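# nightly structure sweep
# worker-07 picked up a monomer target from the shared queue
# config: single-sequence mode, recycle default, output format = structure tokens
# input follows
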Amino acid sequence: MPEYICFVEDLMTRRRSLFTCTLLLGLAACTSSRHDPNEKYYLLTANPKVAYWQTAGEGLASGARALGVLAEMAGPDTYDPRAEAQQFSSIIAKKPAGILVSAADPDLLKDPINAAIAQGIPVVTIDSDSPASERLTFIGTNNYQAGLMGGRVLTDRLHDKGEVIFYTMPGQTNLDERLQGYKNVLADHPHIKIAQIVDVKGDPRVAFDTTMDILTKGKLKPDAFVCLVSTACPEVADVLDRQKVAGKVVVAMDTDADTLQWIQKGQIAATIAQKPFTMAYYGIKMLDNLHHYKLPTLVGNWAQDTFAPVPVFIDTGATLIDKGNIDAFQKAQRSSSTK
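# output follows
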């Protein structure tokens, strides 16, 4: 198999690195000895056991294998933003090559992120940002646009009239942006009202219990339920099914197996699919590049610097899934899982 000599130039430091490249199936796959055997990257989230973050963990592991480095996903056993911030500080002490973090509470994470940056550890936020911190880049969904996408589905299915219950976690940047997108759509549909905004506090049981109370106590008579977090709408659909309630519009978030099953059963109208695998996979590769091709400084006003070496935001995209395209979506998922 032919080998080629490749030169890669770092635009910031004007250093050149020599690689041995092997031509394989028409693609040049480059390897180098730049990685230290103990080089390790972390992905930190406030709720690592949920299906969404397990998918991100697969992306992290896949990226680590491709690079030949160590990687670990960390986080508290249950949703706990304060514990996440504390664990971030513990990770700094291990002197990692880089950290990916989803900021459940952007204010709690700001100081730990800044502390890592001050020590020369590159930090990239994924899924949920901490925009006031000195993180280098945010990789994830354009959550405001996701809210607009969901809002258009909601208004269409409600035929411009009804009351809506939202399930979210106030203060988490990505969820607040989604809610704002919905609100801006609803502003043009004055006959659709927000009846209640439920704080699920990272616990799907809150969504189940609240929905059960709403349906059985009868104080509210919502026509629709919108979940801005992945774990809420399977619980909402379960309650509707148990209570034999039909005709409600349910718009979910993400593609947990239960969510997709409820779409097939007709209890959930649609969901918005994100790409947590891609966020983590691309994130670790970006951190690896930042670790080995160091910037003159990790501190900068990247949002306003027109010569910034890093983007402020990388949009991984979002897709609306409903009964019309769920079979194609699942077929694509199965195809990807076999590769």
